[in-house]
Amino acid sequence: MSEDDRDDKKPSLRPSAAPSNKKKKKKDKEEVQRELRELTKGEERPPFDLKKLYLRGGAVVVLVWIIAFVVPASFWWVKIVAAVVTVAAAGAAIWVKRYLDKTQAIGALLKGADTEEGRKEALARLESDFKKDDTTAVIAKAQLQMQEDPRAALATLEGVNLDKVMAPIAAQVRAMRAMIHLTIGEVQEARALADKLDLGKQQEPKTRAMFATVASEAWARTGQAKKAVDTLELFNPEDDELAELRAQMWRARAFAYAGSNDMKGASRALKKLAEMNPHLLGMFVGQKKIHPLLEREAKQMVMRLGIVPRKMVRQRV
């Protein structure tokens, strides 16, 4: 093997010849897809214990009927109340069963959509097997589209009427839209959505952490870095319970610390991302609305790791 051949196999840090527009666009798209997959990937959750729910609901209904038979006959309305409670419980049980069946079916589709062909098949099934106004299916569709075409995912989510869906679903849609805007560098649009997220009302720890992370990145990149730092430091990115959010949380911290002129903190956040996947550093290189010191630190880290940086240029609209 010649010396020239050996040199070709080494990771080069020298500027290479400018690629063709077609090749460059393909690389940019691949970078965006990789970033979105890292930010949106989750972990498999244990199945919901429907039997336990039925037992608890049944116990309540039995207790209501015991009370109805114990009270004097003159209180005839108590038995009507018991009947209404029974019908309502039965209706709720049927709704929960259908909802869980639907979410499990959608979860199975998403689980199998880890390839381009799998995503196409899952998108086709979501279109054919679920109603167009089914918000659970709409959110799942957007999750798949985010990995290929963020603009298409935004269009899908923007089709959800936030005034007509339940508050938790509206909040989830806002958070997803804000995250996509942040990923493609549209920080003002993300900030407008983030300001409407009520973090105090989120009881589920992972949901609260996810909303806080998205909102904090939006704040950090629009002039409120201190507020972002104070919020992010309420959560531990290394907590095993928040493992699926780790990349997002360190990303937000990098922006927040840089915005607060804490470059040691920003560098620490970048190192954590590099440990997970060095390609995650690409989200700070060549994007718009990136703190210049943060971008410089990311570039230096990329060079030290021996990775040829490939600029992430925003997709054309």
- Compressed to H and E, one letter per element, the order equals HHHHHHHHHHHHHH
- Global Rg: 25 Å
Q: What ranges have pLDDT less than 50 throughout 5 or more consecutive residues?
A: 1-29, 40-46, 309-317
Secondary structural class? mainly alpha
Helix content: 55-70%
Question: Got a strand count?
Answer: 0
- What is the averaged pLDDT score? 78
- Give a quick account of the main beta sheet: strands, pairing sense, barrel closure: none
Distance between the termini: 47 Å
Proportion of residues in extended strands? under 5%
From the spread of the alpha carbons, the general shape counts as elongated
Number of helices: 14
Question: What labels describe this entry?
Answer:
mainly alpha; 317 residues; 0% strand; disordered N terminus; 66% helix; single chain
How would you explain this protein's 3D organization?
The chain is mainly alpha-helical. It has helices at 3-9, 21-40, 50-70, 77-111, 116-129, 135-146, 150-158, 167-183, 187-194, 205-220, 225-232, 246-259, 263-276, 292-304. It has a domain at 27-156. Helix 12 (246-259) runs antiparallel to helix 13 (263-276). It is elongated, with a radius of gyration of 25 Å. The longest helix is centred in the first third of the chain and has 35 residues, at 77-111. The chain contains 14 helices and no strands.
